[in-house]
User: Fold YqeG family HAD IIIA-type phosphatase from Lactobacillus mulieris.
Amino acid sequence: MIFRPIYTIDTIYHLDPTELKKMGIKAVFSDLDNTLLAWNIRDSNQEMAILNKKLAEAGIKLIVISNNNPERVSKAVSKFDVAFWANARKPLPFGILKALEHYNLSKENVIMVGDQLITDIQAGNLAGVKTVLVKPLVETDKWNTRINRFFEKIIFFFLNINKKIEFKESLKWMKN
Ligand SMILES: [Mg+2]
Assistant:
């Protein structure tokens, strides 16, 4: 099913660069709001810079793939030297596909991390990268996300029938 993540993890900040490297991962594509930072906080925290550095030391690039406009995304991440791709138009796969091409990456070497099934996971699955669902950093959502969350609950119900979606501190395989 197009909404099923390949992996889950409780938060992007628990990703283990050594494990990713062993998996052949060369880039982590990440959603911004509620995945890397809380949507209602304008400035990102130091955690993002630490993650970026840890990944870089393992030779892995962190690239933010966001539906937000370039101004908002740039404000949030550029001071930490994190690359980004704005106006990605998830759940369409084209933003991810363009970023793959731009950074000269093959889809086998990329994970797409996000907190929403309908936007992040669907886009990642359509693009053919490895998808990783995380728990949203904060419980509240922007109004447009709230609509998605309603449908997401229904999708979770069906996904859980085959294999329960669980979040652990390390990557958990979610395919049937
Ligand atoms: Mg999000």
Summary: The longest strand covers residues 61-65. The chain has a mean pLDDT of 93. Residues 7-173 form a domain with the Rossmann fold fold (CATH 3.40.50.1000). Helices lie at 17-22, 46-57, 70-77, 94-102, 117-127, 143-162.
